[in-house]
């Protein structure tokens, strides 16, 4: 079943040639992919731009643990083979979040609401198993950066990276997007909400500097002078 | 608030003398949960990464900061590739960024302001810096000629090389090695990589001499002509809202 959101735009370019595909089948078999093999989990959630809540994106996270307290995720726009890699998310436990410098904290968002609200889910995993992990995720903070603005129809990853935020209270998620995801994945956010009543957020409450310090963030590009070469070795590649 | 060319303030996370990242070892129950989920979920997009490339990149705001990168490459079509970039090839490698690679045909369709953010791959490949570990040369050669014509856009989200134990700050643009003074990769970095994979970058260079030198678009590798690079700033802004926030 094609679980593709309605805003999908074709990526420009020719279909993959046979020779190319054959080579990649070979390299895919011969080479090692350990960092990729560490990815064990698919989570679906919603992000919006830290300067614009009205622009919302269905985000498929493919996550691996670096250790118990830190996860790193590749974000795609769908769970399908032809999904576009649109961003990255890092997830850390509360204790690590609290060690971040104060000017770093606003780039991170809390997960409590989207987990308790039922909006963040693991497609294909029974609720009872899902909730074991969500109990932990509920208390974490995430940092999301997107590189490909698929929601505005960009055919390629144009522009500069965007800091994204996550849902923090009812009324933020666009109804149509919500219904569309519920239908395509056969989930009910309301039902999940009921099942997740006993989950709790960060022990110290949601930090006031998280979630863009309650305001918003934008990114800008700046040209810089390249520092002059220091003593370069005489032999180089 | 944060800039890709600014070192983060002193905190336990930014010292770099301890293992990156901080945190407790993964518990057995997490591993079991992961394995369980992994069996029930298909993880399709991730399976599309079929190439491992080891190469080098330079920070666009400071070319003297150079890193060895491990790209896990997925193909969207003949003209577009997308890569998850890590700082090593081990299981617990840090995910440090994303690179997109496109054909010259597509690069030409980009607006000029956009083209400046992309880098060429010709030198990186012909010089032998770009390698597919474990793949016999004979196998990789035909595709290398195609790759040599492509352009890349690489955003780094975790500056591990400056000691960040967690991903701090604004994302940073990266550039590719170039055959001009400041664009060359430090020999010690290359040597370390070569020793690890038991290869010789120099030998690879010799074997790639016959790869056609593509014509590089004038807007790529911006710093080479303009002596200017790029940094990204994250600044507070008023969020357009449709409901109260946070």
From TrEMBL, chain A:
Pfam families: DUF1264 (PF06884)
Membership in a protein family: Belongs to the OBAP family.
Full protein name: Oil body-associated protein 1a
Native organism: Rhynchospora pubera
Source taxonomy: Eukaryota, Viridiplantae, Streptophyta, Embryophyta, Tracheophyta
From TrEMBL, chain B:
Protein's UniProt name: Oil body-associated protein 2A
Classification via PANTHER family: OIL BODY-ASSOCIATED PROTEIN 2A, PTHR31360
Signal peptide residues on this chain, from the entry's feature table: none
Region (Disordered): 1-26
InterPro entries recorded: OBAP-like (IPR010686)
Family: Belongs to the OBAP family.
Organism superkingdom: Eukaryota
